[in-house]
Amino acid sequence: MEALFEMIRRGDRPALARAISLVEDGAPGSRELVQAAYRTPGNSRIVGITGAPGVGKSSLVDGIVNELRSMGRSVAVIAVDPSSPFTGGAILGDRVRMKHRTTDPHVFFRSLASRGHLGGLTRATGDVLTLVGVAGFDDVLVETVGAGQSEVDVMKYANTVLVVLSPGLGDAVQTLKAGIFEIGDVFVVNKADLAGADRTRAELEMMLDMRPPGGWRPPVLKTVATTGEGLPELAGAIEAHYEYLKSSGGLKARVRNRFLASLEEYLKREMVDEVLRAASASGELERCLAALEAGKDDPASAASRLASQYRAASSCSALVPSERS
Amino acid sequence: MEALFEMIRRGDRPALARAISLVEDGAPGSRELVQAAYRTPGNSRIVGITGAPGVGKSSLVDGIVNELRSMGRSVAVIAVDPSSPFTGGAILGDRVRMKHRTTDPHVFFRSLASRGHLGGLTRATGDVLTLVGVAGFDDVLVETVGAGQSEVDVMKYANTVLVVLSPGLGDAVQTLKAGIFEIGDVFVVNKADLAGADRTRAELEMMLDMRPPGGWRPPVLKTVATTGEGLPELAGAIEAHYEYLKSSGGLKARVRNRFLASLEEYLKREMVDEVLRAASASGELERCLAALEAGKDDPASAASRLASQYRAASSCSALVPSERS
Fold first, then answer.
1. Which of A30, A128, A283, B128 is the Cys-Cys partner for A22 at CB 3.0 to 4.6 Å?
2. pLDDT (tens digit per residue) in A124-142
3. What was the ipTM of the complex prediction?
4. Domains annotated on chain B, with CATH
C-alpha cells in the first residue's frame, strides 16, 4: 500500500485507478490508503457539476475539460453514478465518453458506481476525491447524475458548484424543488441554441433576485457544449468564484465543511452500523423489531435503548477488567 | 396531545393536518404524538409512487385517487417534496392540485416539505405515515419528486412501489441510473398516447427479463392519467401485488424493513448528532477539524476517537457515582 501510495503521489495514473477500485470495494488496506491521503493535503480546485438528467451534463463536462486543458491545466473527472446495483456495470457500459482524451496524460476520467450500497456513495466520493487530490491535478471535476439528496451531499465536497439546466421542460422550477438551487455558485443554461433559453435564464435571475443581498451573486451563463459556445466564459466564472472564495475566507469554510461531512459519514458507519451489528448478534434487534411490529414499542424509544446498551457494553466492560487487576 | 391523538384516531382531518405540522416542525410534544402512533398500528396499504420530473406523477396520483374512491376506498396522499429551503412555501404555492377533492371527506392530501433540513425528510416521512395510519385510511399514497437517494429511502416505507416513466426522453435508462429500477413492484408508462410508449415498455420488459427468475414479476402498464386510460388495470395491479405480498410473507418483511429504516434514522440522530454536539461544546470538534485541515488527522481516525470519547463519557461517568455509594 505504501508503494502504491508513492506511485499515486508521483502521478502514476494506473496506480490511481487501481487505488480507487480498492477504495470502492472496501478492499483490505484501502482504509490505510485513504488515511494516508487525508494526511497529504492536495491543492486541487474541486468543481461540482450537477443537474437533472437530459440537460447535457456529460457534453458540458467534456467541453470544460477541453477548455481547462487549453489553459494548460491538468484535470481529473470523477463521475458519481448511482447506477443500478442489479444491472451494475452493464449500464455503465455506455460510458464511452472521454475516449478522445485517453491519450492525454493530463486528463484522468473515472466513474464511481454505488456497487450495491448507495448509502456509502457519499463517503466513498469524499475518500476518492482525497486520493485524487494526492495525484496533484489542477482541477478535479465531480459530476453527479440526478438531483436528489445524494447529489446535494456529494456537492458538499466541491469548492465551486455548477448547476446545469436546459431550456424548456420546466427545469428551472424542477431544479428548485430538488433543493439544488441554494448550492449553485454558477448557473449554466446549456443547449442554449434551443428555444426558451432566454426565458430559463430570466427565471433563474428572478429567483436569484429573491435571495438575500450581499456575498457572491451566482452568474447565469448560456452554453452550447457541443459547439463550445460559452465555454471560455464558463471557465472564467469558475476562476472568478474561486478567487472570490479565496479572498472572502469562504474557501477555508468550504474545506472545513467537507471535513465535517466526511467526519459525519464515518461516525455514522462507526456508531450506527456497529450498534445494529451488535444488536443483531445478541438477538436484541430481533426483539426490538418484533415489539415494533406488535405496536409495543416505538423507534425513538428503541433507538435510545440500543444506544445506551451500546455505550454501557463497550465502555464499561472495558473498564471492569482493569478494576479487577 | 392526548386529546389531539384521540381526535386523529376518530378520523378528524383537521386534527391530523395539525399533528403533521407539529411533527414536521419538531414542535414540543410531537415526539410523544409519534410514539403513541407507533403503538397504535394501522392497517393502511401504503403505495409509493416515484419517477423523474415531467412523467406526469401528479396527474397519475389524482387518477389513482379517483379510481380507489370509485372502489369505495378512503385515500390519503402524502407528497414528499424536497423543495428549496430558501424559497420554501412560495414554490409549494403552485400545488393547487386535488382542489376538486377537498370536499370529499374520504380523501386527505398533504405535502411534506423539507423545511431546510433535507436530511430529516426520510425520518419525518416515516413518522407522518405512522400518524396517517392511525387515522384509518384504506390506502396511503406516498409520492416523491425526483429520483435520488432520498426517494429510494422514502420508498422503504411503502408496501408497493410504482415506478412511473413516460415515453421518449430516454427515461428508461435514466431511471436505471438513479437506482430506482430495483425497487419497482409495478412499472407505469404514463402519457402512453405519446409516440414511443411501446418502445419504453419493451425496454422495461427487456430489463425485467435480465432479473433473476422467481418471485414477483413486476407488470409494465400503460396509462394516460389525464383521460383515465389504464387506471382500472393499474388499481388491479396494485391489488394483485398486495395479495402476493400477503400470501408470500413478503408483507411482513416489508413492514419489518420499514421499522428497521426508522430505527436507523433515529439511531443516527440519537448518536451521531449527539457526538457532534458534545464535541462541538467541548471544543474537541474544532481541534479535530483544525487537525484535518492541517493534514495531521484523517476522518476515520477522528470518528473512532470521538466515538470512544462519547462512550466513555456517557456511560462511565454514570457508573462512577453508583460505585461510590
1. A30
2. 788 899 999 999 999 999 9
3. 0.77
4. 41-248 (3.40.50.300), 263-324 (no CATH)
